[in-house]
């Protein structure tokens, strides 16, 4: 990819393609003449000895090694410049026409196939601990991956410190020639019935093991080998890259016991409530019973997925030892990073720029990092801001890596109120920091000027610097646009080092097409990245979520690249952390109860749910493939000498000669399957041949024969608005359509296929973002989440009904997914339950009869179990009691407002087809700290909580006044009613503070108590009425009661 190629805009359907040059000023680029491949544009690279790779010794025409190998294997084997035949270089495989050479690197290893197979088989048996006899996998064990053998599209990469095991799960399953073969711990020459087999069969197990060790050269090693640091590093590299950390049993076991006890007490409580109706208030009693049964059901769905909470640890040093050996090529897998934005007015370009800068400066190999920014609003302001960001990155990235800056988003780094000189020893740091801060302030001024200019659209539309009209002037009808700002030939920083790739993408939009909002934009990025870079892993971030921990991607790689468990991991989810939240977190924006309790519990089952950002995906999992299956333990075969260890089998099936007829039939069937697969492959992934080819490259990379121009043209094709028609995009592939919360659906589909996910919570937060701290914005955000859950519940992907066929989704994981879709419906019983106290106070009735001593013990046990469960959860999770209480308060606030509206809107959409517009949450912030917290914005979501709050306060006043008038006998039942009313008021207290706005002098709590106490004292004053003379009544002792 050439960074100086200009803006590429076009439409595949209209057969249009335009390249706009000269938009940005040319940057100073280091002269790379002679070091860039003239065929693909990549770096030529060096040999093992560190010298420049030279393919042709006659003319020295610059060609990289992949192009050289491809030309020798598939092409004319001639140099493109001098037409001389390429000679075989050391380490290259032989092709037809090579001269015989006495070279150990191919003579003894390339053609010794049996020896390689023997070593591979022995290594596999040693790793899995299965030194037994048996058969290979049956027919049904074949993976669901496409049965294609494409050796030219695969890369087998040996890793230092590992045994030479063929650990490519996808490739091994795609190779049909390895099926139905015997698996032995000995060489293939020792088949049953041969002399070698009979000799070894007579030997004991220990003797056979000693002989095998002698053959492998593992005996007789010197003691000094263990003291060799290289040997120690190799041993360390073989260790797991991560491990589970179980919660202490002293914390978890009491927690589980309390859950069971609470379940029993809850059953006794519901039985008592049902068998003891209140006859004079049967309507109130029945309503309360229905609400309490639903609350119990909802609690079970929420509680039991937290039964197996775990923590995890990662070992970054082992990751480096395994994949970043000194003097060897870096073996870490590439990563494509996606950043999505829509409206530059609601998502300021400066916020997006900080996110992009933190990505470009993260601690990961630059040649394996690519950043794609999706501008779904086709804004020229975002485009120009990204161009400025690419220019500033040339100075910011080397500064971060030189001084190990954290965090690497400049706005957050320069605004931190910490000692920035701590742990800094370089004398030039202060001087360079001041200069960089000045550069960043100038960068901010330029970005702010762009935003101010973008507020008023010119009558003729936006014009680029070279006079060309901006292709995205009509945001609903524009071609696809791609601009490579930083690439291999134009991505050098101020010190001459290479920078990661930075690509601007705006997908094509035309009237009459369904674009599927954010999910469609993410799928377009998946296809673009698959064409241009095709990294095996992808990280997606919202535009306001910057990388707070520069090693975050390495943390994820400790799980995804682990050779033992990584192949079954579909994604690694990080918790969401936020900046700019008030100290008391009034509206529970941090959501720590969900991220530090619920997600840890799910990690012990099948993995956490996908929450929309801060997630590293495996590309093959997004392509709809199923995880590789574990090899089954070989079945035991009994021989004449050991008839008791298994059923007798005829050895004729395993003879040397085999049955040629069966092999021919199997080959014909394989050809038919291959043809059928090729016919249906484009129906699944689309009509792009290059992208279709990239989906088969499990280890990533692009075909070496592809030129940058052809790749960009194909990238425009895959983001065309009609590309997904009649394909499986959005239904089985990529981000799943059908809900505005596409994240829940996408993760749910992967878990149903058998994948598992990982929850990674490093000590330093991986990512940080901004949250809407204003009450109205927060409620609108919760409304969008709840509406997406309602849409999923009524769709065919509902976890209540979907995913039972394969049986890959665990039951507790299904409970969690059901809970994520039914929790908005709790708003209906919650609204009724919050209204009952006021109705009881106003009518003088109650939902419970007079309780006995035994029944009161049940009530006390229920409340104690509720509090004990919460306290023990806080104990093992580390969540503070204040955060837990804020979560409880906002559960009530959101339940009777946003969740209620979500249910109504969801039903209107299902029944009447009335759709709801998606509103982007504003990421803008004012200069004053927390000034947005006190801003009052009217919305209809405020009506239900305000009504509930007022009627409960009126009910308290009316109940007290009634008790004053009725006498002392009415104070007993009053306390129960007032308790429930105060329970509602206390939970709605943060909502009331939001309604009151910012109080400069008088706190809100003082105003509330003043109103309540003034009302009560007024009623007492009227009842006592001390200024009116009391009339003395008749003397009952003299004239009787009826006087």
TrEMBL record:
GO terms for cellular component: plasma membrane. It is found in: Cell membrane. Its EC number is 2.4.1.12. The keyword Transmembrane applies. Its main location: membrane. One of its GO terms (molecular function) is cellulose synthase (UDP-forming) activity. The active site is at residues 376, 743. Pathway: Glycan metabolism; plant cellulose biosynthesis. Residues 37-83 form the RING-type domain. InterPro entries: Cellulose_synth, CES_Znf_RING, Nucleotide-diphossugar_trans, Znf_RING, Znf_RING/FYVE/PHD. UDP-alpha-D-glucose binds at residues 340, 346-347, 376, 517. Keywords: Acetylation, Cell membrane, Cell wall biogenesis/degradation, Cellulose biosynthesis, Glycosyltransferase, Manganese, Membrane, Metal-binding, Transferase, Transmembrane, Transmembrane helix, Zinc, Zinc-finger. This is Cellulose synthase.
